[in-house]
Design brief:
2 domains; 13 helices; 3-stranded antiparallel sheet; two-stranded antiparallel ribbon; 8% strand
């Protein structure tokens, strides 16, 4: 297996990456260093070796920096953009079944359509159960993780659109426009908290100006914009 790893600045310099918590950014780099030559790695192994928080794994999955499998293995979505290895030097991954569930498009791993529903159902459970397992054997007993009921982020976001707070409605509009998906209630509540301050400033503008700005940034920065981008451009539209 290759001993050196690379990270593409075209990914690291995006708003989507820069808006991650520092702990999630650090975990992304550690996963990249521990991954095999095709980008697959057991995240519970990384958490066991280096430490970390299961919420950061959830954030990386939600933001599409990782794809998680039922086995507890993850693959780095942009692996082929970050690292290119000559086929003669590449050691094939041992995670054959996981790889068979993927295809590549424009240098990114994506889920085959026929297996995506399965991965959506299991992603939260895999993260929670695997982190518990990774803590077994430590000197102190781990705190039990709360098992969440099945969660549907689409329904949750629809409820946000009818909230009394206009800033919550705006965050819901952002989630819909950016096609955000969340594996758990904890994950979406963390994202809402992150954008409350920007949303309160944005809602001071007219609905027409807000809608125009949404359309502008979504066309100019597809997949790389957020409410901070809206706040930056809204006074210029």
């Amino acid at each position: 297996m290759a001993q050196k790893r690379m990270f593409d600045r075209a990914i690291i310099d995006t708003d989507k990456f820069m808006d991650l918590p520092m702990s999630a950014k650090a975990l992304y780099f550690l996963l990249g260093m521990e991954a095999d030559d095709e980008g697959f790695v057991s995240f519970k192994k990384v958490l066991r070796i280096h430490g970390g928080n299961e919420d950061d794994i959830k954030v990386l999955i939600t933001k599409n920096f990782l794809i998680v499998f039922e086995s507890g293995v993850v693959v780095i979505t942009d692996w082929q953009k970050n690292n290119y290895l000559d086929k003669n030097r590449l050691k094939p991954t041992e995670y054959i079944l996981e790889k068979e569930q993927l295809t590549t498009k424009s240098g990114k791993y994506i889920i085959n359509k026929d297996v995506k529903p399965m991965l959506n159902r299991c992603s939260t459970r895999v993260v929670e159960s695997s982190v518990v397992e990774s803590n077994i054997g430590k000197a102190s007993l781990p705190k039990p993780l709360k098992v969440e009921a099945p969660f549907n982020s689409t329904d949750y976001i629809k409820e946000m659109l009818t909230d009394k707070g206009k800033h919550i409605q705006l965050i819901g509009k952002y989630f819909i426009t950016s096609k955000s998906k969340f594996p758990s209630k904890l994950a979406i509540q963390g994202e809402i908290k992150r954008w409350v301050r920007d949303a309160r400033l944005i809602v001071e503008y007219s609905d027409e100006q807000i809608n125009k700005t949404f359309q502008y940034v979504n066309s100019k920065f597809p997949d790389e914009w957020n409410l901070s981008t809206i706040k930056k451009y809204i006074s210029k539209i």
